[in-house]
Automatic annotation (TrEMBL), chain A:
Xref: Pfam families: BPD_transp_1
Cellular localization per UniProt: Cell membrane
Lineage top rank: taxon: Bacteria
Protein source organism: Nocardioides aquiterrae
Highest classification ranks of the organism: Bacteria, Bacillati, Actinomycetota, Actinomycetes, Propionibacteriales
Name of the protein: Amino acid ABC transporter permease
InterPro entries (UniProt xref): AA_ABC_transptr_permease_3TM, ArtM/GltK/GlnP/TcyL/YhdX-like, MetI-like, MetI-like_sf
Automatic annotation (TrEMBL), chain B:
Record keywords, A-Z: Amino-acid transport, ATP-binding, Cell membrane, Membrane, Nucleotide-binding, Transport
PROSITE patterns given in the database record: ABC_TRANSPORTER_1, ABC_TRANSPORTER_2
Pfam families the UniProt entry points to: ABC_tran
Ranges for domain ABC transporter: 4-238
Protein name per UniProt: ATP-binding cassette domain-containing protein
Membrane topology per record: Peripheral membrane protein
Family statement drawn from the similarity comment of this UniProt entry: Belongs to the ABC transporter superfamily.
PANTHER family named in the record: AMINO ACID IMPORT ATP-BINDING PROTEIN, GLUTAMATE_ASPARTATE IMPORT ATP-BINDING PROTEIN GLTL
Organism: Nocardioides aquiterrae
Record localization: Cell membrane
Molecular functions per Gene Ontology: ATP binding
UniProt xrefs under SMART domains: AAA (SM00382)
Coiled-coil residue spans: none
């Protein structure tokens, strides 16, 4: 078998294939260039463009505000990373409580239902305000009073409810036959959840999960309403002082730069899972 | 002109050669059975014919046109070839009837009413009329596989590919599925089936191919393959399964 070498016909076919690939790449490039050129031309030829350019894309102000935003964005990153870890754990616990059947867990289940229903109904900004101003004013001994702390807690509370529902949807999308075969092996319902259902569910919900986390990264800006001096606050501060909106564009670029690596990572994870688990993917 | 012809077909996944120099010619109304142990390349061969896999060498021609040419519109070819899988692969979110009418409506442009009428007549011919409104998961394995067959037949394929369609069924249900295949064969449908049902192959096939390690080791009419195989490997295999 090792002495096989491609026939003339096969070599021709490979040439055709690479030509077709080159053609796809050319179409992709051309379309991209055309679309973006149209957008740029459309924007720059609009009557108000010079004013917009001055107010939003001002090089001087961009350079001036950059160090301040760079310094403040770490607060957002820190808040996001801490919140994300807690949200994943809490949301998973809530979701597992909701799909559990044990009679002992009935109160937990009730709490979980009420929690998701109520919390999802409250705008996140109100939660930040309620916790950020309300908790410190309780004056309880030992309770932190930092606005950063309570803003982070508010985000965790709010997003846990959303992410819990994402997890639950994932668990319910796992076919009942998977439950049956795990229980048939002698696994308990808890073990089945832990070893069979949850791993499959998590893989399925990675894209919507990412959605929520990108949204969370942006919502760290809400901490500014309780006086946390994070990146968007810095940008607003600078903008109000200098009558220029360029800092908003700069801070947007920062947020975009944070979310893109996350998106690529999840795409890569999903592609790897597909390659491993599905034969004959097209 | 033969309906389908393969010559020198090769398929490899990395270093693993799954099909090696496979050549085969099929005429209208032929019923070709591919036999051989698991991993001998039967399924891959069917998938290559349906253009679900790119081949690494050789030529596949369907109705005189080389379909292994990358410039060929694969959808046009597939719309004339029906395929049924071992695991049924019915769409769980659609009812049995909707499963059967999806492709005729979307690919062949048949009206909803006409597609439903044709699907219902096929379903009732195969004893599934009362299951038409149910979702596939509610059906037994045999019923599901019959529904999958009907789904393929609703497209009125020129060539039908059946990939071990009874392998997941218990013996009692195998019969009801094979009855349909037998009826279709008798009606003159051209088909290629990968199968482990040797009795069925002997009865229905016009042509039997024994695959071993990606090669067609031996082929001929069933009377010849099953009674006096040339190759020692074929004899071994038949001794084990008969």
């Amino acid at each position: 078998m090792s002495q096989w070498s491609p026939s003339r016909h096969e070599l021709d076919r490979r040439r055709v294939r690479s030509r077709l690939r080159a053609r796809s790449a050319a179409i992709a490039t051309l379309m991209t260039v055309v679309v973006f050129a149209l957008v740029v031309v459309g924007l720059t030829s609009s009557p108000g463009w010079p004013r917009v350019h001055e107010a939003f894309f001002n090089g001087f102000h961009a350079r001036a505000v950059l160090p301040d935003i760079w310094g403040a964005i770490w607060l957002n990153v820190k808040m996001f990373l801490i919140a994300e870890a807690f949200i994943l754990v809490i949301a998973m616990l809530i979701a597992m409580a909701r799909v559990s059947r044990s009679p002992w867990l009935t109160p937990v289940r009730l709490v979980a239902v009420v929690y998701t229903d109520v919390i999802r109904g409250i705008p996140t900004i109100l939660l930040v305000l309620l916790l950020g101003f309300g908790m410190p004013s309780l004056g309880l001994q030992g309770l932190p009073i930092s606005a950063f702390f309570w803003a982070t807690v508010a985000l965790i509370v709010s997003y846990s409810a959303y992410v819990a529902e994402v997890f639950r949807a994932g668990m319910e999308s796992v076919h009942p036959s998977q439950w049956a075969s795990a229980i048939a092996l002698g696994l308990s319902r808890g073990q089945t959840l832990r070893h069979v259902v949850v791993p499959q569910a998590v893989r399925r919900v990675v894209p919507p999960l990412l959605n929520d986390f990108v949204s969370l990264q942006k919502d760290t800006a809400l901490a500014s309403v309780v006086g946390v001096f994070e990146a968007v606050f810095v940008a607003r501060d600078y903008g109000n002082y200098n009558f220029n909106y360029t800092p908003y564009v700069v801070v947007s670029c920062f947020f975009i730069a944070m979310t893109i690596p996350l998106a690529r990572l999840t795409d890569w994870l999903a592609a790897r899972a597909r390659r491993r688990e599905f034969a004959g993917a097209l | 002109m033969s309906l389908l012809s393969l010559s020198g077909v090769r398929k490899a996944y990395g270093d693993k050669v799954v099909l090696d120099d496979v050549s085969l010619t099929i005429d209208h109304h032929d019923v070709v059975c591919l036999i051989g142990s698991s991993g001998s390349g039967k399924s891959t061969l069917l998938r290559c014919i349906d253009l679900l896999e790119d081949i690494d060498d050789g030529v596949i021609s369907f109705e005189g046109e080389e379909i292994s040419d990358p410039r060929v519109d694969a959808r046009r070819v597939r719309s004339r070839i029906g395929m049924v899988f071992q695991a049924y692969n019915l769409f769980p979110h659609l009812t049995v009837l909707e499963n059967c009418t999806l492709a005729p409506r979307k690919v062949h442009g048949v009206s909803r009413a006409e597609a439903a009428e044709r699907a219902m007549s096929l379903l009732s011919r195969f004893g599934l009329a009362d299951q038409a409104a149910k979702h596939p998961d509610r059906l037994s394995g045999g019923q599901q596989q019959r529904a999958a067959l009907v789904r393929a037949l609703c497209n009125e394929p020129t060539l039908l590919l059946l990939d071990e369609i009874t392998a997941a069924l218990d013996p009692e249900l195998v019969g009801e599925v094979l009855e349909i295949v037998r009826a279709e064969a008798a009606a003159g449908t051209t088909m290629i089936l990968a199968t482990h049902e040797m009795d069925f192959a002997r009865d229905v096939a016009t042509h039997v191919c024994f695959l071993d390690q990606g090669r067609i080791l031996e082929q001929g009419p069933p009377s010849e393959i099953f009674t006096s195989p040339r190759e020692e490997r074929t004899r071994q295999f038949l001794r084990r399964v008969l």
